[in-house]
Amino acid sequence: MGGKFSGEPPIPESELAQIAEECSQTERRAAEAERELVEWKKVRFMQDRVGEEFAALVLNPAKFGLFVELTDLFVEGLVPIDTLRGDRYTWRENTHEIIGERTGRRFRAGDRVQVILDRILAQERKLQFSIVEEGLQLTGKKAPKSRPKAKKKKANAAPGRSFKARKKLGKKGRRR
């Protein structure tokens, strides 16, 4: 009786193929259901955070925008290309990047950006973000630049000399 198999297999090969196909389909449906549930939970989690700013990583630039992932929350969303302000941005397929025509600003996979959660598309289970621009308010207008404060000159400040050199000179500008 050894290890040899004699006779016909307990389940015909055609039936085994059908069972394997059914198992694969069931596994794919379960994986899809899990993905949908995770997306739904992420949307619910972010619902009260519209308008908040987040650090994000560009996952994949595309013709219609940037897919980003929030670095602390591992939540993904889209920055539509038409919401990028300050320039006219275009998709470059050969380099897989979005580039500003006037400024030359580039968005590539792996870039770190700051984003604001603009809106939630609950039915589609999608989040839409916009890039936070330095010096731009949410209205799109440039924020007023603060003027640098004028430095006060000290009485014993001698032009072109270091602090130690001025200290040696004393109050009247002569060596001690």
Explain what you see.
The structure is a single chain. The chain is of the alpha+beta class and 176 residues long. It has a domain at 18-131: OB fold (Dihydrolipoamide Acetyltransferase, E2P) (Beta Barrel). The chain is built from two helices and eight strands, in the order αββββββββα. It has helices at residues 13-46, 163-169, and strands at 53-62, 65-70, 76-80, 89-92, 97-100, 106-107, 112-121, 126-131. Strands 3-2-1-7-8 form a five-stranded antiparallel β-sheet. The radius of gyration is 31 Å and the shape is elongated. The chain starts with 12 loop residues before the first helix and ends in a 7-residue tail after the last helix.
- CATH architectural type of the domain at 18-131: Beta Barrel
Written as H for each helix and E for each strand, in order along the chain, the element string is HEEEEEEEEH
Task: Kindly name the structural category.
Answer: alpha+beta
Number of strands: 8
Summed up, the helix count is 2
Cα radius of gyration in angstroms: 31 Å
Parts with pLDDT < 50 across at least 5 consecutive residues: 135-158
CATH homologous group name of the domain at 18-131: Nucleic acid-binding proteins
The percent range for strand residues is: 25-35%
Which topology of the domain at 18-131 does CATH recognise? OB fold (Dihydrolipoamide Acetyltransferase, E2P)
N/C terminus separation: 111 Å
Mean pLDDT score, rounded? 79
Helix content: 10-25%
Report the biggest beta sheet as strand number plus sense, adding barrel if it closes: 5 strands, antiparallel
Look at the structure and give the CATH class of the domain at 18-131.
Mainly Beta
